[in-house]
Amino acid sequence: MLRFKTFLLVGLLALVASLAGSSGAAAQGLSSPTAVGPTPGTTYTVQRGDSLSSIAFRVYGNAGAWSCIWAANKWIANPAYLQAGWKIALPASGSCGGAPPAMRYYTVTHTDTLSDIACLYYADCNYWRIYNANRGKIWNVNYILPGTVLRIP
Question: b/e map of 79-109 (b: 16 or more CB within 10 Å)?
Fold first, then answer.
């Protein structure tokens, strides 16, 4: 209970100090400096405690745009690990789209399996994406009819 009271008191004092400081500057006709954040289309030096999502939120106003920053910095192996001092590129836009990828199709041969086809298109050989996109054409995941044209998502 003592910690909570101390926390509450410190927070209240900080609030009073910030209100007194801002009214004093306004009374003297001074403007407070505006905080300039990272700008899209430039580089940014990672600070201690930064994450791709926190940077994306400051730059684009959308924490979900972290994947755009990661895509622009392919040298970052793990998006959950950033080191202070790294310089990263900030894309001009927080939407990493562009045009949607063209639809891909694959015609099954007599030796194909769903796993083989998935390995051609994906790094993990997980065939469930292909199966879910072609449920009306695939009746048994262990056997696909040769000549069947599959949509590859």
Answer: eeebeeeeebebbeebeeeeeeeeeeebebe
Query: Which range marks the domain in which residue 80 is found?
Result: 43-89
DSSP character at residue 120 = H
What is d(CA 132, CA 152) in angstroms, rounded to the nearest whole number? 10
| 23 band by pLDDT with thresholds 50, 70 and 90 | very low
The model scores a pTM over 0.70 = no
Residue 62: inside a domain, yes or no?
Answer: yes
Q: Nearest 5°: CA angle at 146, between 140 and 152? A: 70
Number of structural domains found in the chain: 2
pLDDT confidence band for 20 (50 / 70 / 90): low
**Cβ atoms 69, 56 nearer than 8 A:** yes
Same domain, 76 and 112: no
Domain assignment present for 37: no
